[in-house]
Amino acid sequence: MEEYDPTIPVQTVLSGKFRRYSHLTKLQHLTIPSVIFPNIRDAFLVLGGVVQSFFRLIVWRPDVVFAKGGYVCLPVGWAAWLLRIPLVIHDSDAHPGLTNRLLAPVAKRIATGVPLENYNYPASKSAYVGVPISSEYVPLSDSERQHVKKAMGFDPKRPLLVCVGGGLGSKKLNNAVALHLNKLLEMTNVVLVSGTAQYDELFSLTPQNDKRFQLKAFVSQGMPDLLGAADVVISRAGATFLLELAAVGVPTILVPGKQMVWQIKHAKVFADAQAVLLLDEDRFEDTNDTTLVAAVRKVLKDDELRKRLAINLHKQARPHAARDVAAMIVRASGKRR
């Protein structure tokens, strides 16, 4: 994967986000000072960002503007529309964010991370391309998998379970793995990628001298090999990570975050394709619940299930996503390829 080129100029613009909370009513959003005043302030920041972007785009005169989503894209996207510069947006999530919903009507092309039936975007200008990921994510052969396990210090003949809760980690998933770690280690070696927020706590709760277990705050290098060597992965349901898992084709158990609507939708898309098993994180609050251990045991003991999950998940891979997005941008610009 190519590294970022520091010679490419980076510019910032004013922007702001609209605060919305599922536990608040519409009236509360309009009456609670800690919500309404920051929203009013950020509305002015967005307007300022539109003005900034407008004049910068006049100076730069781009052929096309590409927006990946997130509130910082809104003023730039609106400025592009005002200047009649073609706008292309990419939506990784099955549950579109507010920025992409606002930009979609003025976008010339829309690329999506999951199939189009999960969106309300106009089919005439939308295309399912997937999520661009590193080309390093590929299936490993049996010999390559054993080599990676051995290089990590594991017995290559034992299965490997990799648990990943995202960059900051998932406390419910981390705690469930730590709680049932002894039972899991009876079946498999375990790598728990905890995220940075809970690493110190888990370090004190888990065995650091057991050759069957490794705790990592995060993995900055070698994640493709780690996933490729796994016999089972337990993960949240982030869009990019799901496509990385699909590219590798590893049997996967998803534990979507209940507060993350997009993760629930991602998990359903993959579950409907019979490409993953799903677990309910609320079950983990019961310390006597053993669904996590049972799910891992089920995958490890059932060769047919493990093979079917790997094949079906790999079918969801979109290895040419980056190329397809680039082609869409070029077409929108009106330039010849």
Question: What can you tell me about this protein's structure?
Answer:
By secondary structure, the chain is of the alpha/beta class. It folds into two domains: 121 residues, Rossmann fold; 173 residues, Rossmann fold, CATH 3.40.50. The strands form two sheets. It has a six-stranded parallel β-sheet, with helices on both faces. The chain has a four-stranded parallel β-sheet with strand order 1-2-3-4, sandwiched between helices. Helix 2 crosses helix 3. The mean pLDDT is 91.
Keywords for this entry:
337 residues; alpha/beta; Rossmann fold; 2 domains; six-stranded parallel sheet; four-stranded parallel sheet; 14 helices; 10 strands
